[in-house]
Write a structure and sequence with these properties.
heterodimer, A: alpha+beta, Sufe protein. Chain: A, three-stranded antiparallel beta sheet, 3 strands, globular, B: alpha/beta, Aspartate Aminotransferase, domain 1, Aspartate Aminotransferase, domain 2, 2 domains, seven-stranded mixed beta sheet, four-stranded antiparallel beta sheet, 14 helices
């Protein structure tokens, strides 16, 4: 039987932190009075997210999500909600841009402290078909902030 | 069982490595690899025979037409079609079913009529009927499945009591591997006067199919799932039904005479083959059928069933793995989940070991809802797969589990 250790790219992809967010998602649930809500799915793989935001004075006061999908999409959503609280809308959109850059392999973005725990997702850039998983919640965020102000 | 190692040598792509590992291709329900004989047939067609068919007055065009029509006869013989003119070449199963819905359905379905489908149908045998029923104000009735993934015959009987005009179902389920009792389902549907459409995408490559013995009305299949080229496939139908149907697509080749404001149409099957057809596809498909017949469909079915049985036994030994679908007779398709390891994560991890499986809803979202899963991982086998590959699948799956904190079995 093949008992060789998993290859380094896989270990980098499935870090403890990612599995922890996958199994114990933060800010999971629905807001009572969201100002922004959006549902997004990836028709290719069926990953789904419902994202809700409470924005007051252009600041994200609260954010929740309900989702179904792989470890990458769900961990990305969970970590995103933690990072977004008390961020201004422009700040949030900048972060979405940094995540996107990190997925394209941008080394500076991958070490950008403003991304906090989300830097654990840097390994996804080595798995091109999984980038859409990591970006699903961020695309939902962009849609939500653009749809209704 | 077949000598998979020997057959594998016929497939150039299977000689390649993936991530430095021997390629283990287990996504045959999605598409199959092509033997050298099929690649040669396509190349040979373009090197020696290529011209537009059915219109040239020169020798080359006549030979191209002969090659195309010989391919039609090959498909007709392979499936025991009612007649070669009952074989319409299409891009595949999806286009064949859309042709039936768009031409037969639009001409014959009325408001309030019923179309019956099943909860295990692929989207390609569901969405065309949804579109048709919405257009006509007809009722779409979905027959339920049993817990072990077979068509619920009592629900099927209840649906037939409403005397549907069209009944559509898959011969073999692409998600579960269920082999449906097609002959029985067709007899029951005919008894209430329905026309029966069989989705043969997953049966044609893997079982001996005789459409006259089945006595269905329409049978759809894809060449690329049976070693043939992508974009090849056929609708096999009772000629009288095709004769009575209006055309599907308009254009060249399908006409008899064209006036300023109307046209008369060509004979079947040409009435349904507007435009320049996929001649290379037809020629490649005929070569694929020759290859399959040399091995024998019965032998192929037996081989795949042995692989599926071994896979189910082996995977079931891994703590946390759930295998879906019937335990008994089934085709070489094994859908499973593994604890809370999402199927996409499983597929990514297996890929690093050179193992190709499918993860997702397999174009069967209504079925996934009934199984109460968002997605499954699916291994599907063909004649070039071996028991060693089943073992490689299980070994790699244990590794995936270990990455997610499961204790290896």
């Amino acid at each position: 039987m093949d008992t060789s250790p998993p290859e380094p790219r896989l270990s980098a992809l499935y870090q403890e932190l990612i599995l922890d967010h996958y199994r114990r998602p933060r800010n999971k649930g629905m807001l009572e009075h969201p100002t922004h809500a959006v549902s997004l799915n990836n028709p290719l793989c069926g990953d789904e997210i419902d994202l809700q935001l409470l924005v007051q004075d252009a600041v994200i006061r609260d954010v929740r999500f309900v989702g179904r999908g792989c470890s990458i999409s769900q961990a990305s959503a969970s970590m995103m909600t933690q990072l977004l609280k008390e961020k201004s809308v422009p700040q949030a959109l900048v972060l979405a841009g940094r995540i996107s850059a990190m997925m394209q392999g941008d080394a500076a973005a991958a070490t950008d402290k403003s991304l906090g725990e989300l830097r654990a997702l840097a390994g996804v850039s080595k798995f091109p078909v999984r980038i859409k998983c990591a970006l699903l919640p961020w695309n939902a965020l962009s849609d939500a902030l653009k749809s209704s102000a | 069982m077949l000598d998979a190692a020997r057959l594998r040598a016929d497939f150039p792509l299977l000689q390649r490595q993936e991530h430095g590992r021997r390629l283990v291709y287990l996504d045959n329900a999605a598409t199959t690899q092509k033997p050298q004989a099929v690649l040669d047939a396509i190349l040979d067609y373009y090197r020696t025979t290529n011209a537009n068919v059915h219109r040239g007055a020169y020798g080359l065009a006549i030979r191209a037409t002969e090659a195309y029509e010989a391919a039609r006869e090959r498909v007709a013989r392979f499936l025991n079609a009612w007649a070669p003119e009952g074989v319409v070449f299409t891009r595949g199963t999806t286009e064949a079913i859309n042709l039936v819905a768009g031409a037969y359905g639009r001409a014959n379905l009325r408001q309030g009529d019923m179309v019956v489908v099943t909860a295990m149908d692929h989207h390609s045998n569901l969405v065309p009927w949804q579109i048709l029923c919405q257009e006509k104000g007809a009722v779409l009735r979905m027959v339920e499945i049993t817990e072990d993934g077979r068509i619920d015959l009592s629900d099927y009987g209840q649906a037939l009591e409403r005397r549907p005009k069209i009944v559509a179902f898959p011969y073999v389920s692409n998600s579960l591997g269920t082999v449906n009792p097609a002959g029985q389902l067709i007899r029951l549907a005919h008894a209430v006067g329905a026309v029966v459409v069989v989705d043969g995408a997953q049966s044609t490559p893997h079982l001996r199919v005789d459409v006259q013995a089945l006595d269905c009305d329409f049978y759809a299949c894809s060449g690329h799932k049976m070693l043939g080229p992508m974009g090849s496939g056929a609708l096999v139908a009772k000629p009288a039904l095709l004769e009575a149907m209006p055309p599907y697509h308009g254009g060249g080749e399908m006409i008899s005479k064209v006036w300023d404001d109307h046209s008369t149409y060509n004979k079947i099957p040409h009435k349904f083959e507007a435009g320049t057809p996929n001649v290379e596809g037809a020629v490649g498909l005929a070569a694929a059928i020759d290859y399959l017949e040399r091995i024998g469909l019965e032998q192929i079915a037996e081989h795949e069933q042995a692989l599926a049985k071994a896979a189910i036994e082996r995977l079931s030994q891994i703590d946390g793995v759930v295998v879906y679908g019937p335990r008994g007779h089934r085709a070489g398709v094994v859908s499973f989940t593994y604890g809370d390891v999402h199927p996409h994560d499983i597929a990514t991890i297996l890929d690093q070991d050179g193992i190709c499986i499918r993860a997702g809803h397999h174009c069967t979202q209504p079925l996934m809802r009934r199984l109460n899963v968002a997605a499954t991982a699916r291994a599907s086998f063909y004649l070039y797969n071996s028991l060693e590959e089943v073992e490689a699948l299980a070994t790699s799956l244990v590794k995936a589990g270990a990455l997610f904190g499961y204790v290896p079995a």
